[in-house]
Design goal:
By secondary structure, the chain is α+β, with helices and mostly antiparallel strands. The chain is built from 17 helices and 33 strands. It has a 5-stranded mixed beta barrel with strand order 3-4-5-7-6. Strands 8-9-10-12-11 form a 5-stranded mixed beta barrel. A 5-stranded mixed beta sheet has the order 13-20-19-16-15. It is globular. The protein starts with a helix and ends in a 46-residue tail after the last strand.
Length: about 775
């Protein structure tokens, strides 16, 4: 190939691999990966590509790939108004807008091929536009909805007993006809349906399906929550063979089991959990060593001893992936007899555990450790609330004897936690402090209150100890050079970090860091600088939205948020399959050696385990959020017309989301900002009035009035409360968004939840 052809191909590759980025000639020269390239040849290549309409220009020296007629793949995200976006498999690219006339009957979540019919034009604010060419794989194969029966004549002539309407507003327009082959629900029943035929040109708003399960009448207590659970694919029924296996497990530790383990029953280990916890999978013990160092023992329920690979219980635990925690119930990964019985470190009884003993210096350095199977006895079932009272020098409440006996050790634990926290902070771990909302419900599942819970020292120190154990185990097996399962949180994308840095610059925070290679310490400093300021909440919120999502991986990719080089999940095997798998590997490597056969066995398993546990974790989080949204909407339903203090939590082209002090969120639609016409600025994430120049931005405190609570759709609508503000808009002119910004990235995910690294504020959930 001639040199000028190589230059042409090299220049085109730059644009092809960065389809949404704009370059000038100097930037192209800097990015081209060819030696001895003449500047003149680059100019000629750019001129040729522009002439051939391979690239487009803004007329001011900036160029970008012309994407028209390009076929790409991605996930279709439907809007309930009919149009949608295709989120590309390459997450760094802009979403492709799809008009409702070009969806080709794709449903929300479908994997599709889309043809670009209008390229992105960053100079007028529009993203690429496309047409769905083909649905490669449907994203929805089952759904939950309300059943409506057909009359006898239709049943006889069609064989369809009725139809189901989905609870999902993006699927609500579709009528899913049920055949006679499945369950026979009654009017108003909530039904899980398997879809057998999808919309097409002959039936654009109909589908066919088979009823899999009748959940119950929509008005019965608890059916609303179970509908969300089933719709998210979370298993609730136990296979008979799994229950039989669970019932066959002894309810006590046998003499044979004790003989093979180190006995640590004399150590004053305790469990520290929430008041309402029922299963206890971790116990801790701390004492000072003669050399001034600390002994930290983290002892974890040995679930893998009872759940053997390939057994019915193992298959079911793998399918569930983890326990799911909802406002009024827990859907466990293991049957109750195990999770609350022999696997739970209940007070005063012997239990099998995997132990991780660590020696830690007063500077927080771990100088030695040991991981081994043992037998222990919990010397106290302690609660966070009471431990916090023990550690509060101003508290004089008399507690049970077990707290008084444990008090000296608890104070040493608190000291060790401070040491470990400072060590993590010094290396750059990002520590977000935000309250956790707990929804209280009555016996019928109706929400009666939303209470904010702030973590105390007890919660934080247990988290510190679990983090230390998880890091220790991960590093140990990395050094052994054997296949393993890691909990990873990768470095954030350059584009998102750049946007975040630009955002915080508005608060006077000028970040001198490379957004393409940012270190956790940089973000930690931002958190520290805004701590206690009015900007704290909004800066943390935007930072979380800029980070990637934590997940499981066979590769030790590190944990960015914790600034940890090695990290795994070892400490919660009752409620997470990842931890159970880690325990199984520890046992097998110890018992069977680390030869080629066992390495290959685990190496082949790890990708599937990592994918399944990550997927099921997302399903549980989605179910938890769905239930919380439902119950928060129910809680607010009788408060329509009331006025609340709030802050702006997100700004989009179609309005802004607000959050009340109790964490309830809702939308102020652009059409309800009726004192002016408002333009959306994507860069600053603001809405600005054309006439008044009034501006709304993230983090801004405002007063709002609740105007609608749609419980069925889990949606709250608010308006600005300002009784003295004049109504300036002329009648009939309600549409208030700027068309050039109506297809921006924010509109697809206004709450920014899809790519955030969620630090769930429950101890031991990291």
């Amino acid at each position: 190939m001639a040199q000028n052809e190589k230059v042409l191909a090299g220049v085109y590759e730059i644009f092809r691999h960065n389809p949404n980025k704009q370059y000038d000639i100097d930037e192209i020269e800097k990015n081209i990966r060819l030696d001895n390239t003449e500047f003149a040849d680059i100019v000629k290549a750019v001129t040729f590509l522009e002439h051939e309409e391979k690239i487009v220009t803004d007329g001011n020296g900036k160029y970008q790939l012309n994407q028209v007629n390009t076929i790409i793949e991605g996930t279709f995200k439907a809007n309930d108004k009919g149009f949608g976006f295709v989120r590309l498999d390459d997450d760094s690219s802009d979403d492709v807008f799809v008009d409702k006339a070009n969806t080709n009957y794709a449903l929300d979540g479908d994997h599709v091929k889309v043809k670009i019919i209008a390229g992105a034009n960053p100079w007028n604010g529009k993203g690429p536009e496309g047409k769905v060419e083909e649905v490669i794989e449907h994203g929805v194969d089952t759904l939950v909805g309300e059943f409506h029966p057909y009359g006898d004549e239709i049943v006889k002539s069609t064989g369809k007993i009725g139809y189901v309407v989905s609870e999902n507003r993006k699927l609500k327009k579709y009528r899913i006809n049920l055949s006679e082959q499945g369950v026979k629900p009654q009017m108003g029943d909530m039904v899980q349906v398997s879809i057998t035929e999808y919309p097409n040109e002959n039936h654009p708003e109909e589908m066919n399906g088979i009823g899999l399960m009748t959940i119950g009448n929509k008005n019965d207590p608890g059916v609303d929550i179970m509908s969300i659970v089933v719709d998210n694919g979370i298993r609730t029924d136990w296979p008979e063979e799994a229950l039989q296996q669970a019932n066959g497990v002894p309810d006590h530790v046998t003499a044979e089991e004790k003989a093979k383990r180190i006995d640590i029953t004399d150590q004053p280990a305790v469990t520290i959990d929430g008041d309402d916890s029922k299963d206890f999978d971790d116990a801790v013990v701390v004492w000072k060593l003669p050399n001034g160092n600390y002994h930290l023992g983290v002892h974890i329920a040995d679930v893998a001893h009872y759940i053997k690979a390939g057994s019915p219980l193992d298959k079911e635990a793998f399918a569930r992936g983890n326990s799911t925690y909802l406002v009024d119930r827990v859907i466990p990964m293991l049957p109750f007899r195990l999770s609350n019985g022999i696997c739970s470190l209940n007070e005063g009884v012997e239990r099998l555990v995997l132990s991780c003993d660590m020696e830690i210096t007063p500077n927080g350095d771990r100088v030695s450790y040991k991981i081994y199977p043992s037998i222990m006895r919990s010397h106290g079932r302690l609660t966070y609330n009471n431990v916090n009272k023990v550690l509060d020098p101003n508290n004089h409440e008399k507690l049970e004897d077990k707290y008084q006996k444990a008090a000296p050790m608890l104070k040493e634990m608190a000291d060790l936690h401070e040491i470990l926290y400072k060590k993590r902070h010094a290396r750059g771990a990002i520590d977000f402090e935000e309250p956790e909302a707990k929804i209280k419900v009555d016996k019928d599942g109706k929400p009666i209150d939303i209470v904010l819970h702030h973590r105390g020292t007890a919660e934080k120190m247990i988290e510190s100890f679990m983090l230390m154990a998880n890091e220790t185990v991960a590093e140990d097996y990395f050094k052994k050079k054997v296949p393993f399962l890691y909990r990873v949180h990768e470095t954030p994308d350059e584009e998102k970090m750049q946007s975040f840095f630009e955002f915080v610059s508005a608060f006077g925070l000028n970040i001198k860091a490379d957004p393409g290679d940012v270190e956790p310490k940089v973000l930690q400093k931002i958190v520290s600088k805004t701590e206690g300021t009015p900007e704290e909440a909004v800066v943390q919120m935007m930072m979380l939205r800029s980070l990637k999502q934590a997940h499981y991986s066979p590769d030790p990719l590190g944990h960015f948020g914790l600034a940890a080089k090695f990290y795994t999940h070892f400490t919660s095997p009752i409620r997470r399959y990842s931890d159970l798998m880690v325990h199984r590997m520890i046992h097998d490597y110890a018992d069977k050696g680390m030869g080629e056969e066992i390495r290959e066995n685990f190496k082949s398993q790890m990708p599937n385990v990592a994918e399944q546990t990550s997927t099921q974790e997302r399903k549980s989080i989605d179910a938890e959020r769905g239930v919380n949204d439902l119950k928060m909407t129910e809680y607010m339903a009788d408060k329509v017309g009331q006025v609340f203090e709030a802050i702006v939590s997100s700004v989009t082209s179609f309005g802004m989301f607000i959050q009340l002090p109790n964490t309830v969120e809702g939308l102020i639609h652009i059409s309800n900002l009726d004192d002016d016409y408002y333009n959306f600025d994507e860069k600053s994430l603001t809405l600005t009035g054309r006439t008044t120049h009034k501006q709304f931005k993230i983090g801004m405190p405002i007063k709002v009035k609740l105007i609608r609570a749609d419980v069925e759709q889990h949606q709250l609508d608010f308006e600005i409360y300002d009784p003295d503000a004049p109504k300036k808009r002329r009648n009939g002119q309600r549409r208030n968004f700027h068309n050039s910004h109506s297809r921006n990235r924010n509109s697809k995910d206004p709450k920014g939840k899809n790519n955030s690294f969620t630090i769930r504020r429950k101890a031991k959930k990291n």
